[in-house]
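note to self — DONT lose this again. spent like an hour looking for the file last time. sequence + predicted structure for the chain T wanted, 241 res
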Amino acid sequence: MPDAPKFRRVLIKLSGEGLMGEREYGLDGVTLTRVAEEIRSVVDHGVQVCLVIGGGNIFRGVSGASKGMERTSADYMGMLATVINSLAMQNALERVGLQTRVQSAIPMAMVCEPYIRRRAIRHMEKGRVVIFAAGTGNPFFTTDTAAALRAVEMNCDVLVKATQVDGVYSADPHKVKDAIRYDRLTFMDVLANDLQVMDATAIALCRENDMPILVFNLHEGGAFAKVVAGDGRFTIIEEGN
Protein backbone atom coordinates (compact mmCIF):
# COMPACT_ATOMS: atom_id res chain seq x y z
CA MET A 1 0.00 0.00 0.00
CA PRO A 2 1.42 3.42 -0.96
CA ASP A 3 0.54 5.13 2.33
CA ALA A 4 -1.05 4.27 5.64
CA PRO A 5 -4.73 3.38 5.18
CA LYS A 6 -7.12 6.29 5.55
CA PHE A 7 -10.08 4.05 6.39
CA ARG A 8 -10.48 1.44 9.12
CA ARG A 9 -13.39 -0.54 7.66
CA VAL A 10 -14.54 -0.52 4.03
CA LEU A 11 -17.20 -2.21 1.93
CA ILE A 12 -16.26 -2.82 -1.70
CA LYS A 13 -19.04 -3.26 -4.24
CA LEU A 14 -18.07 -5.40 -7.24
CA SER A 15 -20.23 -5.88 -10.32
CA GLY A 16 -20.74 -9.38 -11.63
CA GLU A 17 -19.65 -8.15 -15.06
CA GLY A 18 -16.32 -7.07 -13.57
CA LEU A 19 -15.53 -10.73 -12.84
CA MET A 20 -16.07 -11.94 -16.42
CA GLY A 21 -12.66 -10.87 -17.72
CA GLU A 22 -12.74 -11.27 -21.50
CA ARG A 23 -15.65 -13.70 -21.36
CA GLU A 24 -19.18 -12.85 -22.43
CA TYR A 25 -20.74 -14.78 -19.56
CA GLY A 26 -19.83 -16.38 -16.23
CA LEU A 27 -16.60 -16.09 -14.25
CA ASP A 28 -12.95 -15.74 -15.23
CA GLY A 29 -10.51 -17.45 -12.86
CA VAL A 30 -7.62 -15.10 -13.62
CA THR A 31 -9.79 -12.04 -12.88
CA LEU A 32 -11.03 -13.58 -9.63
CA THR A 33 -7.46 -14.22 -8.49
CA ARG A 34 -6.34 -10.71 -9.40
CA VAL A 35 -9.23 -9.13 -7.48
CA ALA A 36 -8.51 -11.41 -4.52
CA GLU A 37 -4.88 -10.27 -4.48
CA GLU A 38 -6.00 -6.62 -4.57
CA ILE A 39 -8.19 -7.26 -1.53
CA ARG A 40 -5.39 -9.11 0.27
CA SER A 41 -3.05 -6.12 -0.19
CA VAL A 42 -5.56 -4.01 1.75
CA VAL A 43 -6.35 -6.59 4.46
CA ASP A 44 -2.63 -7.10 5.06
CA HIS A 45 -2.45 -3.47 6.20
CA GLY A 46 -5.05 -3.97 8.89
CA VAL A 47 -8.11 -2.70 7.02
CA GLN A 48 -11.34 -4.57 7.70
CA VAL A 49 -13.01 -5.47 4.40
CA CYS A 50 -16.47 -6.69 3.41
CA LEU A 51 -17.90 -7.20 -0.07
CA VAL A 52 -21.12 -7.14 -2.01
CA ILE A 53 -21.03 -8.68 -5.49
CA GLY A 54 -23.62 -8.29 -8.22
CA GLY A 55 -24.94 -11.14 -10.33
CA GLY A 56 -25.23 -9.59 -13.79
CA ASN A 57 -22.61 -11.93 -15.27
CA ILE A 58 -25.03 -14.83 -14.67
CA PHE A 59 -28.55 -13.42 -14.45
CA ARG A 60 -30.02 -9.93 -14.12
CA GLY A 61 -33.49 -9.67 -12.62
CA VAL A 62 -34.52 -6.52 -14.48
CA SER A 63 -33.46 -8.07 -17.78
CA GLY A 64 -35.43 -11.22 -17.04
CA ALA A 65 -38.50 -9.16 -16.12
CA SER A 66 -38.24 -7.19 -19.37
CA LYS A 67 -38.51 -10.46 -21.30
CA GLY A 68 -41.83 -11.37 -19.73
CA MET A 69 -40.74 -13.11 -16.51
CA GLU A 70 -42.46 -12.02 -13.32
CA ARG A 71 -40.21 -9.41 -11.67
CA THR A 72 -40.24 -11.01 -8.22
CA SER A 73 -39.14 -14.41 -9.52
CA ALA A 74 -36.53 -12.78 -11.77
CA ASP A 75 -35.08 -10.84 -8.83
CA TYR A 76 -34.84 -13.96 -6.68
CA MET A 77 -32.97 -15.67 -9.51
CA GLY A 78 -30.60 -12.70 -9.61
CA MET A 79 -30.03 -13.04 -5.86
CA LEU A 80 -29.07 -16.69 -6.32
CA ALA A 81 -26.59 -15.60 -9.01
CA THR A 82 -24.90 -13.35 -6.44
CA VAL A 83 -24.50 -16.37 -4.15
CA ILE A 84 -22.65 -18.22 -6.92
CA ASN A 85 -20.35 -15.23 -7.39
CA SER A 86 -19.82 -14.89 -3.65
CA LEU A 87 -18.78 -18.54 -3.29
CA ALA A 88 -16.39 -18.16 -6.22
CA MET A 89 -14.84 -15.06 -4.65
CA GLN A 90 -14.61 -16.82 -1.29
CA ASN A 91 -12.61 -19.59 -2.95
CA ALA A 92 -10.32 -17.08 -4.67
CA LEU A 93 -9.72 -15.15 -1.44
CA GLU A 94 -8.91 -18.30 0.51
CA ARG A 95 -6.47 -19.40 -2.20
CA VAL A 96 -4.47 -16.21 -1.57
CA GLY A 97 -4.44 -16.85 2.17
CA LEU A 98 -7.38 -14.86 3.55
CA GLN A 99 -10.00 -16.14 5.96
CA THR A 100 -13.52 -15.48 4.69
CA ARG A 101 -17.18 -15.93 5.49
CA VAL A 102 -20.13 -15.73 3.11
CA GLN A 103 -23.37 -14.50 4.68
CA SER A 104 -26.55 -14.77 2.63
CA ALA A 105 -29.69 -12.68 3.08
CA ILE A 106 -31.56 -15.79 1.87
CA PRO A 107 -30.76 -18.56 4.39
CA MET A 108 -29.07 -21.61 2.85
CA ALA A 109 -27.37 -23.36 5.74
CA MET A 110 -25.65 -26.05 3.66
CA VAL A 111 -23.75 -23.40 1.69
CA CYS A 112 -23.06 -20.38 3.88
CA GLU A 113 -24.02 -18.50 7.03
CA PRO A 114 -27.24 -16.52 7.27
CA TYR A 115 -26.80 -12.76 7.45
CA ILE A 116 -26.39 -11.78 11.10
CA ARG A 117 -25.13 -8.25 11.61
CA ARG A 118 -23.28 -8.71 14.91
CA ARG A 119 -21.64 -11.92 13.70
CA ALA A 120 -20.46 -10.20 10.51
CA ILE A 121 -18.90 -7.36 12.52
CA ARG A 122 -17.17 -9.89 14.77
CA HIS A 123 -15.75 -11.73 11.74
CA MET A 124 -14.24 -8.48 10.45
CA GLU A 125 -12.81 -7.63 13.86
CA LYS A 126 -11.01 -10.99 13.68
CA GLY A 127 -9.54 -10.09 10.29
CA ARG A 128 -11.89 -12.15 8.14
CA VAL A 129 -13.31 -10.87 4.87
CA VAL A 130 -17.10 -11.04 4.89
CA ILE A 131 -18.98 -11.43 1.59
CA PHE A 132 -22.65 -10.46 1.69
CA ALA A 133 -24.68 -12.51 -0.80
CA ALA A 134 -28.29 -12.47 -2.06
CA GLY A 135 -28.64 -8.69 -2.02
CA THR A 136 -31.06 -7.43 0.63
CA GLY A 137 -33.06 -10.65 0.42
CA ASN A 138 -35.95 -8.70 -1.11
CA PRO A 139 -37.06 -8.26 -4.72
CA PHE A 140 -37.11 -4.80 -6.31
CA PHE A 141 -33.84 -3.78 -4.64
CA THR A 142 -30.51 -3.82 -6.48
CA THR A 143 -27.16 -5.01 -5.19
CA ASP A 144 -26.12 -1.34 -5.18
CA THR A 145 -28.80 -0.74 -2.57
CA ALA A 146 -27.66 -3.88 -0.73
CA ALA A 147 -24.11 -2.51 -0.70
CA ALA A 148 -25.27 0.84 0.71
CA LEU A 149 -27.38 -0.91 3.34
CA ARG A 150 -24.61 -3.27 4.47
CA ALA A 151 -22.03 -0.45 4.52
CA VAL A 152 -24.27 1.49 6.90
CA GLU A 153 -25.11 -1.57 9.02
CA MET A 154 -21.43 -2.52 9.34
CA ASN A 155 -20.48 1.01 10.41
CA CYS A 156 -18.05 1.22 7.49
CA ASP A 157 -16.04 4.37 6.94
CA VAL A 158 -16.63 4.33 3.19
CA LEU A 159 -18.36 2.43 0.39
CA VAL A 160 -15.93 1.73 -2.45
CA LYS A 161 -17.54 1.08 -5.83
CA ALA A 162 -15.35 -0.79 -8.32
CA THR A 163 -16.23 0.00 -11.94
CA GLN A 164 -14.82 -0.31 -15.46
CA VAL A 165 -13.53 3.32 -15.48
CA ASP A 166 -11.50 5.53 -13.14
CA GLY A 167 -14.34 7.51 -11.58
CA VAL A 168 -17.70 9.06 -12.36
CA TYR A 169 -18.27 10.61 -15.80
CA SER A 170 -21.08 12.70 -17.25
CA ALA A 171 -21.68 9.85 -19.73
CA ASP A 172 -20.13 6.50 -20.57
CA PRO A 173 -16.58 7.45 -21.66
CA HIS A 174 -16.40 4.30 -23.79
CA LYS A 175 -19.29 5.64 -25.88
CA VAL A 176 -19.03 9.43 -25.50
CA LYS A 177 -15.60 10.76 -26.41
CA ASP A 178 -15.89 14.13 -24.62
CA ALA A 179 -17.55 12.83 -21.43
CA ILE A 180 -16.56 14.92 -18.38
CA ARG A 181 -14.81 13.19 -15.48
CA TYR A 182 -15.54 14.38 -11.95
CA ASP A 183 -13.10 14.29 -9.02
CA ARG A 184 -15.69 15.23 -6.42
CA LEU A 185 -19.50 15.21 -6.34
CA THR A 186 -22.25 15.65 -3.79
CA PHE A 187 -25.08 13.15 -3.46
CA MET A 188 -27.44 15.80 -4.83
CA ASP A 189 -25.19 16.26 -7.88
CA VAL A 190 -25.54 12.56 -8.65
CA LEU A 191 -29.33 12.57 -8.19
CA ALA A 192 -30.01 15.87 -9.96
CA ASN A 193 -27.88 15.00 -12.99
CA ASP A 194 -29.00 11.35 -13.08
CA LEU A 195 -25.38 10.14 -13.11
CA GLN A 196 -25.53 6.36 -13.47
CA VAL A 197 -23.00 5.40 -10.81
CA MET A 198 -25.48 3.71 -8.44
CA ASP A 199 -29.25 3.62 -8.36
CA ALA A 200 -31.15 6.45 -6.66
CA THR A 201 -32.18 4.33 -3.67
CA ALA A 202 -28.55 3.49 -2.87
CA ILE A 203 -27.46 7.13 -3.27
CA ALA A 204 -30.31 8.33 -1.04
CA LEU A 205 -29.45 5.77 1.63
CA CYS A 206 -25.79 6.84 1.64
CA ARG A 207 -26.81 10.48 1.76
CA GLU A 208 -29.15 9.95 4.73
CA ASN A 209 -26.43 8.14 6.67
CA ASP A 210 -23.46 10.30 5.59
CA MET A 211 -21.74 7.34 3.94
CA PRO A 212 -19.14 8.59 1.40
CA ILE A 213 -18.74 6.67 -1.87
CA LEU A 214 -15.43 6.28 -3.71
CA VAL A 215 -15.59 5.16 -7.36
CA PHE A 216 -12.46 3.70 -8.95
CA ASN A 217 -11.25 1.44 -11.77
CA LEU A 218 -11.32 -2.23 -10.82
CA HIS A 219 -8.92 -3.13 -13.62
CA GLU A 220 -6.01 -0.87 -12.62
CA GLY A 221 -3.41 -2.84 -10.66
CA GLY A 222 -3.02 -1.64 -7.07
CA ALA A 223 -5.91 0.80 -7.38
CA PHE A 224 -7.90 -0.56 -4.43
CA ALA A 225 -4.95 -0.13 -2.06
CA LYS A 226 -4.35 3.41 -3.35
CA VAL A 227 -7.99 4.35 -2.89
CA VAL A 228 -8.05 3.05 0.69
CA ALA A 229 -4.98 5.20 1.36
CA GLY A 230 -6.79 8.21 -0.11
CA ASP A 231 -4.48 8.19 -3.13
CA GLY A 232 -4.76 7.38 -6.84
CA ARG A 233 -7.55 8.26 -9.27
CA PHE A 234 -11.10 8.07 -8.02
CA THR A 235 -14.27 10.13 -7.66
CA ILE A 236 -15.54 10.83 -4.15
CA ILE A 237 -19.25 11.34 -3.58
CA GLU A 238 -20.14 12.89 -0.23
CA GLU A 239 -22.48 15.37 1.37
CA GLY A 240 -21.92 18.95 0.28
CA ASN A 241 -20.85 21.60 2.78
